[in-house]
Specification:
Blueprint: E1 2-4, E2 7-9, H1 17-25, H2 27-46, H3 55-67, H4 78-92, H5 96-113
Antiparallel strand pairs: 1-2
Helix pairs in contact: 1-2, 2-3, 2-4, 3-4
Length: 114
């Protein structure tokens, strides 16, 4: 409890996103949260050579994770972070199958536009 003026208030905002998840959802949720982020980065690093044009996604995920150590997530940034995580996982999922699928989609789109 913190006294602000004449009233006592309960402050429930942690200074770190991982601590915030642990306090609000529990320690197992915080472990799952960190595990999800770490596995995303590991998948991205394993396929770093194949996906060189997509490295800004990996670096932005890393920057968000570093910033999350001193701040909690904001409504404007968190969806972009999770979209980037999904993009990295989707691109590194099957490697060649993803490239073939992207090429086929691009060809279908080009033939549709002609």
């Amino acid at each position: 409890m913190v006294r602000l003026g004449i009233n006592w208030n309960i402050v429930d905002k942690a200074h770190c996103e991982i601590l915030q998840v642990a306090v609000s959802s529990g320690i197992p949720a915080a472990i799952a949260f960190v595990g999800t982020q770490v596995s995303t980065v590991v998948h991205g690093i394993r396929h770093f050579e194949k996906w060189a044009p997509w490295t800004p996604l990996l670096f932005s995920i890393g920057a968000y994770m570093i910033a999350a150590l001193w701040n909690i997530s904001s409504v404007n940034v968190a969806p972009v972070f999770w979209i980037f995580c999904g993009m990295v996982l989707a691109m590194t999922r099957d490697g060649e199958d993803v490239v073939k699928g992207m090429d086929e989609t691009l060809k279908d789109t080009q033939s549709f536009l002609k």
